[in-house]
């Protein structure tokens, strides 16, 4: 690198790339450093033999729920291709009584049941009315009237099926959250804003579509891990086996525990919040099949929730070939198995063969004969999978948000305790604004020329 870089961004997931995009549009020079060999982070898609294999399970609600994400989609021109972002038919079902019950998360589910008894459906409506009347701000869950109450506290007055058959499996399957330990406010905000699952969408060309499109317009170095970050009066130094980088400012778009390890020099408010941000591991197995298969009762649907009462280790089964027909070659199938929080904890460090065998065996009851049609297996594991929004993090967030701009900032879904792409993308605007304010305040400060990056 022969010229000064205004900002170095660590991490080429949606948060880091969206931050870099915003800074570049503001006229700043930006370089993104990514340890992996491809962009996308936890939203990466593998492309193998005509299959598009998502490493995660991101879904895309409408713009009213994900405004930052849809603004970025429009800014990148992805909305001009009518098929690039498409509706998912039968997005969510629930397993009960030996088959999948469709219409989970849709108004129609209140009539059909969607795996809930009549009394539980009445209480679901009561809960929805309550949340609609006092919906917390998704960007500021610490301001919620729910305070530090846990998700279990929120659900206690309602029919137990809401926790056992719907909210609990949702929180566990999509966020990796334990209702007894997770703060209610972030989940309530997300539930209230996400709306009906009937309007959920996906990216036709893989869940990394946004990341790849952003990366094509930016200076991104993959295979460039960062091992340490230090801020001084003349800039920020980022150490790496690939060679050090110096910039006027840096954004750490990595999980909170990784950011804390890379940059131990943050303020007291930063350190307190980073320390309070716990994570749930994520474990997912993708099965490439010789034919399309799905849980019993699913007809063209995508994801089936599996309550802990039905299986303690398996939480979600997705028929990825139903997500979009272009995900697999004609006549083939792709099914993914998402471990429950208990399953992820038990199997995270197990060999791939054991993980695949145990979860596939669990899924046989839902998808009879599944193991006989598996051609190949991919295991995806993330130790820092999803930010677990505990009451301690909620309590430390206000001071973190109020801290003054500095040379090192942060981006990621953990910023607002929202484990989704919207949380990541919305954090980018905040991080970019803070970095621009810092750069403007230090415009007259000389910055050393970075050493050549090999």
Automatic annotation (TrEMBL):
GO terms for molecular function: oxidoreductase activity. Gene3D superfamilies: FAD/NAD(P)-binding domain (3.50.50.60), protoporphyrinogen ix oxidase, domain 3 (1.10.3110.10), Protoporphyrinogen oxidase, mitochondrial, domain 2 (3.90.660.20). Residues 15-436 form the Amine oxidase domain. InterPro entries: Amino_oxidase, FAD/NAD-bd_sf, Zeta_carotene_desat/Oxidored. This is Amine oxidase.
